[in-house]
Design a protein that fits this description.
This protein is 52% helix and 10% strand. With 335 residues, the protein is α+β, with helices and mostly antiparallel strands.
């Protein structure tokens, strides 16, 4: 591949770094295709369609879905790096223009396809890709026809597979599964702060289903041992939203959904149940090992909560947690 073509593609990418969604998203792509035709250098135009995002949105909500699309944007851009440009097309499509010849088609489709087909416990995406070689197969006067041709050539989702009925976490079974460390700790703290019996029951359910929202997160993000990227971190931070959506979809568990939803509100505006859950979730997360970091000692986790009390957490709830841990009250729920 010529260095000239790669250099020119870099220049064009700098001109169109601001990607848009919707019908207007193809306009920068059309300009890039016209420019590639004028350059008369070998290039590949890929059109990737991703299926499974709409069911994901229906199940987990629009906010996690937007973060998932941003993650796909980042992954396909990282996959091609400096070899070309990436544009969004209407719907859940991506247009990729590469400084590459026909002999490299298989290499690039096998690179872009997997980047757009992550899987998680509660979802799976699939990518289909069509390709056109430039300038050889192209209608120089109609770049839009070139894009449509690439779209028509897409093969039936060879990367990934969207199941007819993606797995749904069994929320009721999870809510009744004891003992659970987070549920135990949350219940003990709620009792210390004298919540009523019904509120304690809802809070215990919320503590379990809050974690069930991780079904919306790709497996490779949850299992990643290296530091997370910005887009991975943004999506992971929204798993409580996904948990809230799962709760609202079940009539029996829906009353607990506002507790999970209020975790994103400033603690001064959140109900006591949500303030309790935010503290126990933070403590449990810090004291639990993750693929990208070891578990923190309980004393260090508690010190972190004390340092953030007043800004991120209710100081009274943090003090109550310290008392529960000192007394060993939460361990009695495990027996």
């Amino acid at each position: 591949m010529t260095r000239v073509m790669t250099s020119l593609l870099k220049q064009e990418r700098r001109r169109f770094t601001r990607r848009r969604r919707g019908p207007a998203a193809t306009a920068p792509a059309l300009r890039a295709v016209r420019w590639a035709l004028d350059s008369e250098q070998p290039a590949l135009l890929l059109h990737a369609e991703v299926s499974g995002v709409e069911p994901y949105t229906e199940r987990f909500g629009p906010e996690p879905a937007r973060a998932l699309r941003a993650l796909l944007d980042a992954r396909v851009s990282d996959a091609i790096r400096a070899a070309g440009q990436v544009f969004r097309s209407p719907g859940d499509g991506w247009i990729v223009l590469l400084a590459a010849g026909a002999c490299e088609l298989e290499r690039w489709t096998d690179t872009v396809g997997p980047a757009l087909a992550p899987r998680g416990a509660g979802f799976a995406l699939a990518a289909s890709i069509g390709a056109v070689e430039l300038p050889g197969e192209a209608d120089r006067d109609r770049p839009e026809r070139i894009l449509r041709s690439a779209q028509r050539r897409a093969t039936p989702a060879p990367w990934g597979e969207v199941p007819r009925a993606p797995a749904t976490p069994d929320l009721r079974a999870a809510a009744g599964a004891l003992p659970l460390p987070l549920e135990e700790l949350t219940r003990a703290l709620a009792e210390r702060l004298m919540l009523g019996g019904r509120e304690i029951g809802l809070l215990a359910v919320a503590a379990v289903v809050y974690a069930a929202g991780k079904a919306a997160i790709p497996d490779d993000v949850l299992e990643k041992s290296a530091a997370l990227s910005d887009t991975e971190r943004d999506l992971l931070a929204l798993y409580p939203r996904a948990g809230e959506a799962l709760l609202r979809a079940d009539a029996a568990l829906a009353p607990a959904a506002p507790i999970v939803g209020a975790l994103h509100a400033p603690w001064r505006r959140a109900p006591l149940a949500a303030r309790i859950l935010s503290v126990t979730v933070a403590y449990a997360a810090m004291t639990d090992a993750r693929p990208h970091r070891p578990a923190r000692p309980p004393a260090a986790a508690l010190a972190t909560l004390h340092a953030a009390a007043g800004e991120d957490f209710d100081p009274a709830v943090v003090r109550a947690l310290a008392a529960v841990l000192a007394d060993g009250e939460h361990s009695r729920h495990a027996s």
